[in-house]
Amino acid sequence: MSDFLNTLTPDAGPDGASDVPRADGASAWRRSDAKGVVTLWLDCPDTGTNVISETVLRELDGLLDTLGGAKALVIRSAKRSGFAAGADIDGFADIGRDAALDLIRQGHAVLDRLAGLEVPTIAVIHGNTLGGGLELALACDRRIGIDGVKAGFPEVQLGLHPGLGGTFRLTRLIDPIEAMQAMLTGKSIHDRKVKKLGLVDALVPERHVDAAIEAAIRGDLPARETGLKAGAMRLSPARSLAATRMRQEAEKSAPRRHYPAPYALIDLWHDHGGDADAMQKAEIESFATLLESATAQALIRVFFLRRTLKSGASGASGIGHVHVIGAGAMGAEIAAWSALRGKRVTLEDVKLAPLGKAVKRAAKIYEKRHLSGIDARDALDRMMPDPDGLGRARADLVIEAAPERAELKEKIYSGLVNTMKPDAILATNTSSLRLETLFDAAPDPARFAGLHFFNPVSRMPLVELVSHEGVAAETLDRLAAFVGELDRLPVRVRDYPGFLVNRVLAPYMLEAMLMLDEGMDKERLDRAALAFGMPMGPVTLADQVGLDICLEVARSLGRGLDRPVADVPDWLARKVEDGETGRKAGKGLYDYDKEAPPETASGDDEDARIIDRLILPMCNAAVECLREGVVDDADRLDAAMIFGTGWAPFRGGPMHYARVRGDVPDTLRRLEEQHGPRFAPDPGWDRFA
Q1: Nearest CA to 10 among 117, 109, 110, 130?
Q2: How far apart are CA 676 and CA 81, in angstroms?
Q3: Residues 589 and 462 in one domain
Q4: Strand order in the sheet with 142-146
Q5: Nearest to 657 by CA among 309, 252, 263, 258
Q6: Beta strand 121-125 pairing with 425-428
Q7: DSSP SS3 for 631
Q8: Cα 21 to Cα 18: distance, rounded to the nearest angstrom
Q9: Which residues make beta-bridge pairs with 152?
Q10: pLDDT tens digits, one per residue of 451-506
């Protein structure tokens, strides 16, 4: 889900399109006419992003009646953010199957009409061209991409597959295996590959778009090559073999019992890939069926949860220069990501070697994000190693990302007194230390807060914005806006042991360690969690986080909470003392030179008992956090766990899961009888269940 939910917004876009008048009777379209060519500009009102809604398609249908003697139709977007971000999810949120079928069939009728026009039709796509937006472009005869375009079908991330003709139009336009891969993964395809696959007929800079349109109208664009593979895949035996392999691959990352959409898509292509008309009819029925599924409804809810968090990042931060203290893994990632998002960054460390590694890490991040050579160079130029700490005095925001030792952080803060700008903010990235133990040492407690990123910063969208009793509201608002400018999701939490995410997540890992102490097999524990839908088993996660961090978080929770937590086995401290801290050391609970954590789930019925011991304490901790006012509401809590940890998104988060399941307090009482008071249901269940 993270690739779909964290797309960057290119700066490319049409100039002057907003001056084109609205088409007669249309709210979502502008129209211009020149030399017999009609250009329809999609420009959904009151938003910076186009979506393909019922209104958009209905108005397009009406506009197709007004083409008259036009010699060509061009469809473009007036938004700088891109062509279109997909279908209007709000339109599908609460409708039944019959209403969904009617809506989808109406949409297909409009796009079929567009595809059947006798005049040449050309889509000019730029920026994010996703889902329904890409399906609109596919209904045109030709597609011209502007440099930086990203195209894709992210519907699988919502428990769906393309529903406006994408399944049959894409598999017939390009290599069907590549087409299926794009739809099954939901990943965006970047501009050069978009051209290589044949999804666009030309890839040009904005200044050459008009010439490319003229070439398309004249028929001068290169002819498409369908290739032998495309022809072979229209034959049932070839599709059958390919579909079998696709199902095997899908099962590794998206088990059928949790994620039906990939398998419905594979079945569509397997059964009807040789007949476009049959595949279209089957696509409509399949989409409507998936829309009713529990998985799709939960994932659509996750989409709205993300939007809720994003809405808390409004306004301008006034932060242009960021100074990061500590060039370890977290500090380096924070610095690299801030520079990628356009901030000037200085990165300080007491040693030179980490600074050099940080620059190399940044280059790898930019490569993985598909930045062009120029954009990657510019981002690296914005990120300056600063061994002397000269950036401290010039920065609008200082982020301390030093090791988790209070005395070290307090020493850093004392060095910032009378050095930082009067209006600059100091933020700590601590994951285990209470802010109440740190803010007295800060130069100005009113301008000090927690800014807890998750590892790796370049992939994890959540940032916990941690308050304390002395922080100013303006500080929190500016930090929330800053998180939004980084294309990240802020969740506001109050100072509490483990804050929110670690408080809820810690019982998952700590209970697993107790179960290991009881003699349980570590692979069995991890497989049970994977079967539940967690992205990583608790043993693997503990190694990934670092056993030293786990130990510190466990001790912090033990000191700071009024309720009992799982006892930490003595062997965990010994492992940490011996340097066996997990994956980063090559050895922890797993020995990575000799073994690899499991990647597939277990199907054993008895693993339901393991799942209850691992998952229900998280639900209990979630209720505790709500009762204690650590976070505003259950929706934000669920969102934080999904975007901060990858918590089984198809289950909707721990509170949603508890509500759907219904028996969590009773099951906790039974576990309390068997395993002790740490399972006692929180007093908040009556209020928050």
Answers
A1: 130
A2: 54
A3: no
A4: 29-34, 37-42, 72-77, 121-125, 142-146, 202-204
A5: 258
A6: unpaired
A7: coil
A8: 8
A9: 130
A10: 999 988 999 999 999 999 999 999 999 999 999 999 999 999 999 999 999 999 99
Is the predicted pLDDT of residue 15 greater than 70, yes or no? no
Q: Distance between terminal CA atoms of the chain?
A: 27
Residue type for position 248: Q
* 313 inside domain: no
Is 298 a member of any domain?
no
What CATH number has the domain bearing residue 597?
1.10.1040.50
Question: CA-to-CA distance for 389 and 618, rounded, in angstroms?
Answer: 41
Residues in the chain: 689
β-bridge pairing 321-325 and 397-400: parallel
Cα-based angle 318, 435, 622 (whole degrees, multiple of 5): 100
Which CATH number covers residue 166? 3.90.226.10
CATH number (domain holding residue 367):
3.40.50.720
140 and 255 co-located in one domain:
yes
Residue 287 CA to residue 296 CA, distance in Å, equals: 10
Residues designated catalytic = 135, 155
- 247 Cβ contact partners less than 8 Å away, ≥ 6 residues apart: 263, 266
Separation CA 626–CA 682 (nearest Å): 10
Q: Is the pLDDT of residue 2 over 50?
A: no
Q: What is the pLDDT of residues 518-557, one digit of tens each?
A: 999 999 999 999 999 998 999 999 998 889 988 888 888 8
For residue 600, the 8-state DSSP code is S
Strands 425-428 and 383-385: unpaired
Residue 576 · residue 555 · CB < 8 Å: no
Helices then strands, each counted (H, E), the chain: 28, 17
* Average pLDDT, rounded, for the chain: 92
Strands 189-190 and 150-152: antiparallel
Identify whether residues 24 and 144 lie together within a single domain.
yes
pLDDT in tens, 21-44: 998 889 999 999 999 999 999 999
Euclidean distance between CA atoms 560 and 112, whole angstroms? 63
Average pLDDT over residues 98-115: 96
d(CA 15, CA 78) in angstroms, rounded, equals 8
572-585 tens-digit pLDDT: 999 999 999 999 89
pLDDT of 4 over the 60 cut = no
Listing DSSP states for 637-686 in one string gives HHHHHHHHH---GGGT-HHHHHHHH--HHHHHHHHHHHH-GGGPPPTTHH
pLDDT score of 309: 96
Contact 298, 304 (CB under 8 A): no
Mean pLDDT across 296-305: 93
Question: To which residue do tokens 């022809």 refer?
Answer: 231
Instruction: List Cβ neighbours of 44 (8 Å cut-off, separation of 6 or more).
Output: 28, 50, 51, 53, 56, 79
CA dihedral 582→587→590→593, nearest 10 degrees, is: 140
Q: Is residue 51 part of a domain?
A: yes
**Would you call 142 helix, strand, or coil by DSSP?**
strand
Q: Classify 273 as helix, strand or coil.
A: coil
Residue identified by tokens 């510190």 is: 552
Instruction: Record the tokens describing residue 20, joined without a space.
Output: 């084109």
Beta bridge partners, 91, equal: none
Contact 212, 144 (CB under 8 A): yes
The residue written with tokens 């901790």 in the block is 621
Q: Which domain holds residue 123?
A: 2-292
**Sheet strand arrangement including 128-130:** 128-130, 150-152, 189-190
